[in-house]
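Database export, one record per block. Field names are fixed; values are copied verbatim from the stored entry.
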Amino acid sequence: MPLMINRDEVQSVLQMGECIDAHEKAFNEMAAGTAALPLRTPIKPPDGLSLYMPAYLQEMNALACKVVTVYKDNPANHGLPVVIGTVLLQDASTGQVICIMDGGYLTAVRTGAVSGLATRFLAREDEGQVVTIYGAGVQARMQLWAVCEVRDVSRAMICDVVPEAAYSFSNEMSDLLGIPVEVQDEEEALLEADIICAATSSPDPILDGSKVREGTHINGIGSHSPGAREMDGEIVRRSLLIADSYEACLNEAGDIMIPISEGLIDEGHIHAELAEIVAGRKEGRTSPEQITLFKSNGLAIQDAATAKLVYERAQEQGIGTEIEL
Protein backbone atom coordinates (compact mmCIF):
# COMPACT_ATOMS: atom_id res chain seq x y z
CA MET A 1 0.00 0.00 0.00
CA PRO A 2 1.27 3.53 -0.76
CA LEU A 3 2.47 5.71 2.08
CA MET A 4 0.87 9.12 2.54
CA ILE A 5 3.19 11.77 4.03
CA ASN A 6 1.81 15.18 4.95
CA ARG A 7 3.64 18.49 5.16
CA ASP A 8 4.45 18.28 8.86
CA GLU A 9 5.82 14.78 8.40
CA VAL A 10 7.95 15.86 5.43
CA GLN A 11 9.32 18.70 7.53
CA SER A 12 10.13 16.37 10.42
CA VAL A 13 12.38 14.09 8.34
CA LEU A 14 13.90 16.37 5.69
CA GLN A 15 17.26 17.91 6.64
CA MET A 16 19.11 20.41 4.46
CA GLY A 17 22.54 18.78 4.68
CA GLU A 18 21.20 15.41 3.57
CA CYS A 19 19.23 17.05 0.79
CA ILE A 20 22.34 18.80 -0.55
CA ASP A 21 24.18 15.46 -0.59
CA ALA A 22 21.24 13.84 -2.43
CA HIS A 23 21.37 16.65 -4.99
CA GLU A 24 25.07 15.99 -5.56
CA LYS A 25 24.25 12.38 -6.46
CA ALA A 26 21.40 13.50 -8.72
CA PHE A 27 23.51 16.03 -10.64
CA ASN A 28 26.25 13.42 -11.04
CA GLU A 29 23.61 11.21 -12.65
CA MET A 30 22.58 14.07 -14.92
CA ALA A 31 26.19 14.38 -16.08
CA ALA A 32 26.53 10.61 -16.50
CA GLY A 33 23.39 10.32 -18.61
CA THR A 34 21.55 8.06 -16.15
CA ALA A 35 18.91 10.69 -15.38
CA ALA A 36 15.76 11.34 -17.39
CA LEU A 37 14.09 14.74 -17.01
CA PRO A 38 11.60 15.69 -19.72
CA LEU A 39 10.54 19.32 -19.93
CA ARG A 40 7.79 20.26 -17.51
CA THR A 41 4.35 19.96 -19.09
CA PRO A 42 1.91 22.84 -18.51
CA ILE A 43 -1.87 22.59 -18.68
CA LYS A 44 -3.99 25.73 -18.34
CA PRO A 45 -7.52 25.21 -17.03
CA PRO A 46 -9.69 28.36 -17.08
CA ASP A 47 -8.86 29.39 -13.53
CA GLY A 48 -5.23 28.40 -13.12
CA LEU A 49 -2.11 26.58 -14.20
CA SER A 50 -0.99 22.99 -13.62
CA LEU A 51 2.60 21.87 -14.17
CA TYR A 52 3.77 18.25 -14.37
CA MET A 53 7.44 17.55 -13.63
CA PRO A 54 8.55 13.91 -14.04
CA ALA A 55 12.07 12.56 -13.53
CA TYR A 56 13.98 9.31 -13.17
CA LEU A 57 17.36 8.70 -11.52
CA GLN A 58 18.67 5.26 -12.38
CA GLU A 59 21.45 4.90 -9.81
CA MET A 60 19.35 6.41 -7.01
CA ASN A 61 16.38 4.23 -8.05
CA ALA A 62 14.10 7.27 -7.89
CA LEU A 63 11.09 7.66 -10.17
CA ALA A 64 8.75 10.54 -9.40
CA CYS A 65 6.44 13.21 -10.74
CA LYS A 66 5.62 16.49 -9.03
CA VAL A 67 2.36 18.28 -9.79
CA VAL A 68 2.38 22.01 -9.06
CA THR A 69 -0.77 24.10 -9.44
CA VAL A 70 -1.10 27.88 -9.37
CA TYR A 71 -4.64 29.19 -8.79
CA LYS A 72 -4.62 32.86 -7.79
CA ASP A 73 -8.25 32.86 -6.57
CA ASN A 74 -7.80 29.89 -4.24
CA PRO A 75 -7.44 31.89 -1.00
CA ALA A 76 -10.52 34.02 -1.58
CA ASN A 77 -12.77 31.39 -3.13
CA HIS A 78 -11.70 28.12 -1.52
CA GLY A 79 -9.52 28.90 1.49
CA LEU A 80 -6.56 27.19 -0.19
CA PRO A 81 -3.02 28.36 -1.02
CA VAL A 82 -2.29 29.91 -4.40
CA VAL A 83 0.42 27.31 -5.03
CA ILE A 84 -0.10 23.63 -4.19
CA GLY A 85 2.49 20.92 -4.79
CA THR A 86 2.17 17.14 -4.56
CA VAL A 87 4.79 14.49 -5.34
CA LEU A 88 4.05 10.97 -6.55
CA LEU A 89 6.90 8.50 -5.92
CA GLN A 90 6.98 5.15 -7.73
CA ASP A 91 8.89 1.92 -7.35
CA ALA A 92 11.28 2.19 -10.29
CA SER A 93 11.33 -1.62 -10.68
CA THR A 94 7.56 -2.15 -10.96
CA GLY A 95 6.06 1.28 -11.61
CA GLN A 96 3.83 0.89 -8.56
CA VAL A 97 3.05 4.06 -6.63
CA ILE A 98 4.75 3.70 -3.23
CA CYS A 99 4.28 7.19 -1.80
CA ILE A 100 2.22 10.36 -2.14
CA MET A 101 3.67 13.32 -0.28
CA ASP A 102 3.08 17.02 0.17
CA GLY A 103 5.37 18.95 -2.17
CA GLY A 104 5.33 22.42 -0.63
CA TYR A 105 8.02 22.14 2.01
CA LEU A 106 9.89 19.62 -0.15
CA THR A 107 10.09 22.16 -2.99
CA ALA A 108 11.34 24.88 -0.67
CA VAL A 109 14.12 22.70 0.74
CA ARG A 110 15.18 21.24 -2.60
CA THR A 111 15.44 24.74 -4.10
CA GLY A 112 17.62 25.81 -1.21
CA ALA A 113 19.65 22.62 -1.53
CA VAL A 114 20.64 23.25 -5.15
CA SER A 115 22.01 26.65 -4.13
CA GLY A 116 23.88 24.89 -1.35
CA LEU A 117 25.33 22.49 -3.88
CA ALA A 118 26.34 25.30 -6.25
CA THR A 119 27.90 27.18 -3.34
CA ARG A 120 29.82 24.06 -2.31
CA PHE A 121 31.44 23.86 -5.75
CA LEU A 122 31.73 27.54 -6.72
CA ALA A 123 32.14 29.82 -3.71
CA ARG A 124 35.46 30.65 -2.11
CA GLU A 125 36.33 28.57 0.93
CA ASP A 126 37.44 31.42 3.22
CA GLU A 127 36.48 31.37 6.88
CA GLY A 128 33.98 33.85 8.28
CA GLN A 129 32.15 34.72 5.08
CA VAL A 130 29.31 37.25 4.87
CA VAL A 131 26.06 36.27 3.14
CA THR A 132 23.53 38.72 1.72
CA ILE A 133 19.99 37.54 1.08
CA TYR A 134 17.58 39.51 -1.13
CA GLY A 135 14.00 38.63 -0.27
CA ALA A 136 12.61 37.54 3.10
CA GLY A 137 10.18 34.80 2.15
CA VAL A 138 10.25 31.05 2.70
CA GLN A 139 12.76 30.47 -0.07
CA ALA A 140 15.10 33.12 1.27
CA ARG A 141 15.18 31.23 4.56
CA MET A 142 16.11 28.03 2.75
CA GLN A 143 18.86 29.81 0.84
CA LEU A 144 20.58 31.01 3.99
CA TRP A 145 20.18 27.64 5.71
CA ALA A 146 21.74 25.86 2.72
CA VAL A 147 24.70 28.23 2.38
CA CYS A 148 25.45 27.85 6.10
CA GLU A 149 25.57 24.08 5.62
CA VAL A 150 28.45 24.29 3.14
CA ARG A 151 30.46 27.37 4.10
CA ASP A 152 31.77 28.97 7.29
CA VAL A 153 29.45 31.98 7.64
CA SER A 154 30.14 34.62 10.29
CA ARG A 155 27.08 36.79 9.66
CA ALA A 156 24.27 37.48 7.21
CA MET A 157 22.39 40.50 5.92
CA ILE A 158 18.78 40.58 4.77
CA CYS A 159 17.20 43.05 2.33
CA ASP A 160 13.49 43.22 1.61
CA VAL A 161 11.09 45.92 0.44
CA VAL A 162 8.85 45.12 3.41
CA PRO A 163 10.71 46.09 6.61
CA GLU A 164 8.50 43.93 8.84
CA ALA A 165 9.34 40.86 6.76
CA ALA A 166 13.06 41.62 6.95
CA TYR A 167 13.02 41.97 10.75
CA SER A 168 11.00 38.76 11.12
CA PHE A 169 13.56 36.97 8.94
CA SER A 170 16.40 38.44 10.98
CA ASN A 171 15.03 37.24 14.30
CA GLU A 172 14.01 33.80 13.11
CA MET A 173 17.16 32.92 11.18
CA SER A 174 19.53 34.32 13.79
CA ASP A 175 17.94 32.01 16.37
CA LEU A 176 17.92 29.05 13.99
CA LEU A 177 21.49 29.34 12.72
CA GLY A 178 23.24 30.97 15.66
CA ILE A 179 24.76 33.81 13.64
CA PRO A 180 24.01 37.55 13.50
CA VAL A 181 21.45 38.32 10.79
CA GLU A 182 21.21 42.08 10.18
CA VAL A 183 18.57 44.07 8.32
CA GLN A 184 20.53 46.19 5.87
CA ASP A 185 19.98 48.52 2.92
CA GLU A 186 20.57 47.00 -0.50
CA GLU A 187 23.75 48.85 -1.47
CA GLU A 188 25.58 48.30 1.81
CA ALA A 189 24.65 44.63 1.79
CA LEU A 190 25.92 44.31 -1.77
CA LEU A 191 29.29 45.89 -1.01
CA GLU A 192 30.01 43.61 1.96
CA ALA A 193 28.81 40.28 0.59
CA ASP A 194 30.98 37.26 -0.13
CA ILE A 195 27.94 35.20 -1.13
CA ILE A 196 24.66 36.60 -2.48
CA CYS A 197 21.35 34.77 -2.80
CA ALA A 198 18.57 36.48 -4.74
CA ALA A 199 15.17 35.03 -3.91
CA THR A 200 12.65 37.74 -4.71
CA SER A 201 9.57 38.10 -6.87
CA SER A 202 10.89 41.28 -8.48
CA PRO A 203 10.51 41.41 -12.28
CA ASP A 204 13.36 43.94 -12.52
CA PRO A 205 17.04 43.83 -11.45
CA ILE A 206 17.50 44.24 -7.71
CA LEU A 207 21.23 44.93 -7.64
CA ASP A 208 23.82 46.98 -9.52
CA GLY A 209 26.15 44.47 -11.16
CA SER A 210 28.96 47.00 -11.49
CA LYS A 211 29.21 47.19 -7.67
CA VAL A 212 29.48 43.47 -6.95
CA ARG A 213 32.85 42.73 -5.35
CA GLU A 214 35.39 40.51 -7.04
CA GLY A 215 35.33 36.99 -5.64
CA THR A 216 31.60 37.01 -4.89
CA HIS A 217 29.46 33.94 -5.52
CA ILE A 218 25.82 34.55 -6.48
CA ASN A 219 22.83 32.21 -6.49
CA GLY A 220 19.99 33.53 -8.68
CA ILE A 221 16.75 31.82 -7.63
CA GLY A 222 13.70 34.05 -7.71
CA SER A 223 13.04 34.85 -11.37
CA HIS A 224 12.00 32.06 -13.71
CA SER A 225 10.22 33.57 -16.70
CA PRO A 226 11.53 35.12 -19.94
CA GLY A 227 10.41 38.64 -19.09
CA ALA A 228 11.62 38.85 -15.47
CA ARG A 229 15.11 39.08 -14.02
CA GLU A 230 16.75 39.76 -10.67
CA MET A 231 20.25 40.20 -12.17
CA ASP A 232 21.17 43.07 -14.45
CA GLY A 233 23.12 42.43 -17.61
CA GLU A 234 26.36 43.78 -16.16
CA ILE A 235 26.67 41.17 -13.42
CA VAL A 236 25.80 38.40 -15.86
CA ARG A 237 28.50 39.70 -18.21
CA ARG A 238 31.11 39.91 -15.43
CA SER A 239 30.44 36.43 -14.04
CA LEU A 240 31.45 32.88 -14.74
CA LEU A 241 27.90 31.76 -15.52
CA ILE A 242 26.71 28.29 -14.45
CA ALA A 243 23.23 27.02 -15.36
CA ASP A 244 21.21 24.26 -13.78
CA SER A 245 20.17 23.51 -17.37
CA TYR A 246 21.27 25.10 -20.66
CA GLU A 247 17.81 24.49 -22.11
CA ALA A 248 15.96 26.04 -19.18
CA CYS A 249 18.21 29.10 -19.01
CA LEU A 250 17.92 29.80 -22.72
CA ASN A 251 14.14 29.35 -22.80
CA GLU A 252 12.83 30.33 -19.37
CA ALA A 253 15.32 32.59 -17.58
CA GLY A 254 15.01 36.32 -18.21
CA ASP A 255 18.26 36.80 -16.25
CA ILE A 256 20.02 35.18 -19.21
CA MET A 257 17.63 35.73 -22.12
CA ILE A 258 17.39 39.51 -21.72
CA PRO A 259 21.18 40.17 -21.74
CA ILE A 260 21.40 37.95 -24.83
CA SER A 261 18.66 39.96 -26.56
CA GLU A 262 20.49 43.17 -25.59
CA GLY A 263 23.72 41.89 -27.12
CA LEU A 264 25.68 41.99 -23.84
CA ILE A 265 26.40 38.24 -23.98
CA ASP A 266 25.73 35.36 -26.32
CA GLU A 267 24.62 31.80 -25.60
CA GLY A 268 28.25 30.71 -25.32
CA HIS A 269 28.60 32.86 -22.19
CA ILE A 270 27.05 30.00 -20.21
CA HIS A 271 30.24 28.29 -19.07
CA ALA A 272 28.71 25.01 -17.90
CA GLU A 273 25.77 23.24 -16.36
CA LEU A 274 26.08 22.58 -12.64
CA ALA A 275 26.13 18.84 -13.37
CA GLU A 276 29.31 19.28 -15.41
CA ILE A 277 30.98 21.11 -12.53
CA VAL A 278 29.84 18.56 -9.94
CA ALA A 279 31.08 15.66 -12.07
CA GLY A 280 34.44 17.36 -12.71
CA ARG A 281 33.92 17.57 -16.45
CA LYS A 282 34.37 21.34 -16.45
CA GLU A 283 36.27 23.61 -14.12
CA GLY A 284 34.44 25.97 -11.81
CA ARG A 285 36.08 28.84 -9.96
CA THR A 286 39.70 29.33 -11.07
CA SER A 287 40.74 32.26 -8.87
CA PRO A 288 39.75 34.03 -5.64
CA GLU A 289 38.90 37.16 -7.65
CA GLN A 290 36.47 35.49 -10.04
CA ILE A 291 32.75 36.23 -9.72
CA THR A 292 30.62 33.09 -10.07
CA LEU A 293 26.90 33.11 -10.81
CA PHE A 294 24.60 30.10 -10.59
CA LYS A 295 21.21 30.45 -12.27
CA SER A 296 18.56 28.06 -11.00
CA ASN A 297 15.26 27.36 -12.71
CA GLY A 298 14.35 24.17 -10.84
CA LEU A 299 14.74 20.67 -12.25
CA ALA A 300 12.56 17.62 -11.69
CA ILE A 301 15.57 15.50 -10.72
CA GLN A 302 15.73 17.63 -7.57
CA ASP A 303 12.17 16.60 -6.69
CA ALA A 304 12.83 12.92 -7.42
CA ALA A 305 16.01 12.82 -5.34
CA THR A 306 14.39 14.68 -2.44
CA ALA A 307 11.22 12.59 -2.53
CA LYS A 308 13.25 9.38 -2.39
CA LEU A 309 15.19 10.75 0.59
CA VAL A 310 11.97 11.72 2.41
CA TYR A 311 10.44 8.28 1.75
CA GLU A 312 13.49 6.45 3.05
CA ARG A 313 13.66 8.54 6.22
CA ALA A 314 9.91 8.19 6.80
CA GLN A 315 10.19 4.41 6.54
CA GLU A 316 13.12 4.35 8.97
CA GLN A 317 11.23 6.47 11.50
CA GLY A 318 7.80 4.88 11.07
CA ILE A 319 6.27 8.13 9.82
CA GLY A 320 3.35 8.41 7.39
CA THR A 321 0.02 6.63 6.86
CA GLU A 322 -0.52 3.63 4.60
CA ILE A 323 -3.53 3.99 2.31
CA GLU A 324 -5.41 1.73 -0.08
CA LEU A 325 -5.91 2.89 -3.64
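Remark 1: The chain has a mean pLDDT of 95.
Remark 2: The chain is about 40% helix and 25% strand.
End of record.
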